[in-house]
Amino acid sequence: MALRQRSCSVPALQQQRQQQQQQQQQQQQQQQQQQQQLGLLSLRSAARSSNGSSSSSSSSRRVHHVLPAAAAASPGTLEQPGAAAATASPTQQPVQQQESGSFNWHRAWYPVGIVSQLDAARPTATKLLGIDMVVWKDGSGNWVVFEDRCPHRLAPLSEGRLEPSTGQLMCSYHGWQFDSQGKCTSIPQIGEPAAHAAACSSKRTCAITYPSQVAQGLLWVWPDAASSDLAAASPPALSSQWGAGGWTLLGGEWFARDLEYGYDTMMENLFDPSHIPFAHHGIMGSASRDKAQPLAITTKVDVTAQGGFQLFRDSAPFKTAAPTDTVNNFVPPTLNASSQTNTVKGTTLVLTFYGIPTAPGKSRVITAFFTNAKVPAFAAKLAAAVEWVFHLGQNQVLDSDGMLLHVQERLLHEGRDTNWRSAFYMPAGADLGIIKFRSWYHDCAGGSVPWPGALASQGLGPVLPRAVVMDRFSQHTQHCKSCSAAVKWIQRLQAVCLGLSGIAAAACTAAVTAAAVAAGSTPAGTTAAAATAAGSGPGAMQAAAGALAALPGWQCVLLALLACALLFAHRQLGQLRQRFFFIDYEHWNRK
To answer: What is a single cellular component term in the Gene Ontology annotation (predicted)?
Structure first.
């Protein structure tokens, strides 16, 4: 995999922006530390005296933690409601680390899109960490990522075009062109060669270019234009199953969808297995409310700023036929890999999730499922040919979480208590994953994504309509080639069914009418008028009527049934088509 780096030097504007982002992150960390000190001094003192300090190393940094005994122990030992509160709840005890161990959001790799779904013929807008970006493919076949603003007058480059003669990105506002390194190569408004060359050599005419690479079918972006050397030395968090022998990618390809709730809410949900039999009742394998069971989750690797954490449980959140061992691995900032092993058969299912922060209250999830169980070759090929079937199932699962998470997020961030440690009450061991993720997010990563500019203080706004939260078309279908193609085919089939049903109904009606004419029960004037309208004489009408009247009665019945069947098929196809747009998910009527 080749890493795209920029040769055009970083403009002063970009350096200022990086400094502002770093200052915002430091301020957020200081505010978080102040809140912890004001509200939890006694608890932290108790934690230090009882537990001491433990150190962990990750990447090239060392991070020190004071881990609460209750969080480090088996979740089954956590105090239950009504028990004496001699030991503080693990949700009240913050992880401690040195400032040098803080996670840097801008110096990490993020997958922003599925390469096979990108349109090589046009620039595509995307968003990461609140930064508007544009993705395009240059004349050499390389994917390039710019900030989505022209240095001339700040017009969005995503509204531009790819110039065939140069293989470069052209701004549609004034025609400036940029090569894959961000260097401006053409300014149509300057005709004098020396002046043109001087202007194009200026740092101020460079587009801001972010390091990018293609790996495992995904386009990865490093959202810090000033640290391309570090980006080249830092590998992205890739799946160990992709392309490995003995593993099959289920569903044919990666799946992606934009969501109407933020990164932290989405990631928290992914570390919460106990919600599955309730929120996904009846739609996710054998998960159902009546099969829900307690979970004993333990920590395999504890929280570090760069290394994340790893959890283990020896059972599923609902009763299954065979025991299952699950290892849940978090690699900051995006990867959540859940490896589920059937201890009887020895087969493993790996659920790979990438959570991408796009904007406040919005995120993107990219998923793929792998198995080492034997899958017939024809089944794998069939699944790849009809990816949209798998995607419909994925969308239904996400919809069942949609309103729950969209509203929950607002209650936490804009409610009476915005401190998760006191706002959440989590006495069960099943919530250990939420505790660990929130500890990383707040104690190691500043408690918030460092959004740029005005986005940093932007609220989440009111609760959106259900049709917006669960809008499958704008969040997935229009960006997915398989689902978009399925919608087009469904519309064509609908048109065919409607047309054929009309023909069958017309033939049936004509046969009945012809039989009446042949029997002489239709007035002569009506027959003559019909013949005249058809451009033929009464003799021709009588001949046609005789031919149709010769049809056996059972054929007329078949024509009528065929017309009804085609209308029914048209209706069913319409319902299938609707599943690519919006289907309201209401939990109250799920039996």
So the answer is: membrane
**DSSP for 170-186, written as a single string:** E-TTT--EE-TTS-EEE
With tokens 């915002």, the residue in question is 24
Q: Residue 237 in 3-state DSSP?
A: coil
Number of neighbouring beta carbons within 10 Å of residue 458: 13
Q: In Å, what is the CA distance from 222 to each residue of 40, 108, 210, 231, 235?
A: 36, 6, 6, 7, 11
Give CB contacts under 8 A, 24+ apart, made by 144-147.
144/4, 144/169, 144/180, 144/209, 144/212, 145/4, 145/112, 145/209, 145/210, 145/212, 145/219, 145/221, 146/178, 146/182, 146/207, 146/208, 146/209, 146/210, 147/207, 147/208, 147/209, 147/210, 147/225
Which tens digits make up the pLDDT trace of 40-75?
A: 333 333 333 333 333 333 333 322 222 232 333 333
Nearest Cα to 449, choosing from 9, 28, 18, 53?
A: 28
Q: Facing residues of 219 across strands?
A: 113, 214
**Rounded Cα gap, residues 144 and 175, in angstroms:** 19
Backbone φ, ψ for residue 476 (5° rounding): -145, -60
H helices present in 295-386, as ranges: 377-385
Among the listed residues 339, 325, 314, 142, the one whose alpha carbon sits nearest the alpha carbon of residue 240:
339
Residue 77 has pLDDT above 80, yes or no: no
Q: How far apart are CA 129 and CA 306, in angstroms?
A: 18
Virtual torsion, Cα 502, 505, 507, 508, nearest 10 deg: 180
For residue 582, give the nearest of 486, 480, 484, 475 by alpha carbon: 475
